Amino acid sequence: MERTFAIIKPDAFAAGHAGQILSRIYSEGFKIVGLKKLYLSKVEAEGFYAVHSARPFFGELTDFMSSGPCVVMALEAENAISKWRDLMGATNPADAAEGTLRKEFGTSIGENATHGSDAPETAAFELGYFFNGLELL
Fold first, then answer.
1. Which of 21, 73, 108, 117 gives a 20 to 30 Å CA spacing to 35?
2. Residue 107 marked in a binding site
3. Is 115 a catalytic residue?
4. How far apart are CA 134 and CA 121, in angstroms?
5. Average pLDDT over every residue of 45-72
6. Residue 104 to residues 4, 51, 112: CA-CA distances in angstroms?
7. 65-110 pLDDT, tens per residue?
8. Which one, of 114, 118, 119, lies nearest residue 92 by Cα?
9. How would you classify residue 89: left for phi > 0, otherwise alpha for psi between -120 and 50, otherwise beta?
């Protein structure tokens, strides 16, 4: 079993899609081993996305991620990282395959409904950023 980190972003949460996304997570065979609803501060969003701090979209990204509540999750499944990325779909919802979360719930590259770790090292950092060991079941 592998663990990955996932977010239901503020756009999807505000639009009332969190329940549908959680349902899809379960129906696709993931086990949710950690879950929190939170409202990231700008500083927390900047810390989480620090890897992108030199990119031109950093300010817009961190403003968006601190604009409203989100749901952060630790997911577990066989090949969880690639499986979750496949379920999310392409970063740009316009390019995402039919049936993916971003195609169904995303509205733009910036507001694309979900986030997921892209590698084991990223997953370890991201899981540790939001969960301590006692919070993961």
1. 108
2. no
3. yes
4. 20
5. 97
6. 21, 28, 9
7. 999 999 999 999 999 999 999 999 999 999 999 999 999 999 999 9
8. 114
9. left
Of the candidates 10, 15, 128, 6, the one whose C-alpha atom is nearest the C-alpha of residue 65 is: 10
Q: Look over the chain and give the mean of its residue pLDDT values, rounded to a whole number.
A: 97
List, in order, residues 6 or more apart from 113 with CB less than 8 Å away: 8, 9, 11, 12, 17, 21, 88, 93, 101, 102, 104, 105, 106, 107
pTM, two decimal places: 0.96
Domains of the chain: 2-40+70-135 (3.30.70.141)
Looking at residue 124, its pLDDT comes to: 97
94 three-state secondary structure: coil
Catalytic residue among 115, 116, 117, 127: 115
Q: How many CB atoms lie within 10 A of CB 89?
A: 23
